Amino acid sequence: MTEPPPPQSTEPPLPPPPSTPSTTVIHPRREPFEHGLLPIPKLIFSDPTQTLISFKHKLIELSSNNRVDSVAVSESLQISVEQAKLVVDTIASILPYESESDDTVDVHDLVLFLYIQSYKRLLPRTHKDSAAVADVWPSTSAFDGYLSALSPLQLVRSNSKRFTPSQADEESHQLSYLQKHMANIVSLLAEPVEGESEESLVLTMDRFEHLGLLIQYGDKGSEGSSLSQSSPFFANSDPDMPAVPVPASQVHDWLLENIASALEYIAERTSSKENGPVSASDQDVAMTDASTVSVKVSTSARGASFIEGISKSSYAKHASDIKGSSVKVLNCHESAIYILAPLRYATIYGCSDATIFIGAVGKVAPFNTFYSQLEEHMNEVGVLPTVNRWDEPIALGIVDPHDSLSHPAGVSDVQTESATRVDPDQFTNFVIPNWLGGESTGSTKDNPFTLPEAYMASQQRNEKNLGEIRQLLREAPLEESRKRELSSALHVYFKDWLYASGNIRQLYYLQGD
Fold first, then answer.
1. Minimal CA–CA distance to 251: which of 25, 9, 30, 56?
2. Residue 361, SS3 per DSSP
3. Over the stretch 264-288, which tens digit does the pLDDT of each residue have?
């Protein structure tokens, strides 16, 4: 598809905006690109710009204060109401500010969200055995199939820059996408000057602010101030007076200039890392090629922590260890990982045979467990124990259209197998080891989520049976020698279970800590 020329304006040119200071670099916001892409084919258009401009005008006519609900989204996009609600909820979760309403979405945020559904994620170089699919979570990507074919040690050794994109690689990829599509993105937000031709496009300060869904300035982004206050166009606007609209072409040129500077900055940093010594805090440090467990744990300056390459080990992070509001757990195998912290986002990718417990996340289902600070952490990220819809999953496409791999024809029409409830008789408590309680004691004494009746009854029945067995053992009319034999037999069976389940590893790791 041929890209349209940048939006043109017949307005008298404004003075050229000042260059961005070298200490402030434009960044793509990770949230929409990492958490805002939905595998719903009807959200991707062959001609997104013209389709979405028409779609925007139609919705604005139907909207109240430029906001629409999921029913309007469903009817306009011809998707189910359930999928439309997912779209609205997803946009609310990735906005740089708190949404005005849980039930509606701003039309301009919606069209930007729909436009970036064309984004293709940066994936590692594929392998000749990439079609294999095994027990790696999530398992819908051919990349995951390749990872699952490796042993943990092989995976650690192959997990280098040759196969796994660094955070700098991903940011460059996102910036390059924005660079290529910025003319279209700006045109989705621009509006013609009243009384002039359609080619005379301008951006008001309000429309400009919507770009904050996709870009931010500095490492902390627009958390402290709005995007418009970081730009030369509206930085000195009088809050009591409406700001003068800016020609869309000038906004476009200024954004391209800053994106080019950011790409150059990333290239220089990457080059200096490859040619210089690697520091302990370097988020792109390559993992060592050794037979010992090689772990990459790092924190991005822009608020994401990464836990990568843990194999056959137990690992824990507390709230004080996590910098920022998101965590990525990547390529971890045969391990138990505990993250007892409040988070907005969590990504788990390329993991197998691993138990990963994350304390409180704004969009992740809870374990049947608790720790002393759980309710405090839930409050921080807005998780309500009274709202329990974890058993109502939405099955989407089995193939993610946002990855960069090709897929067999027709496979996109297949849906994933929907999750099912665990049988109440198989439902158990998940126990967090006491050795993780090193931080200050909180007020949570039990699971704050109320169990469904069938599961509560099963849990109470199991606890009652365990109590009765313990009492029978204590009161059994056995001689001391026979009691010792019984105790020894129980220990043997318990040890067999530890080995069979793999939980024996955790005991070994605890001894080494």
1. 9
2. strand
3. 988 888 777 666 554 433 433 322 2
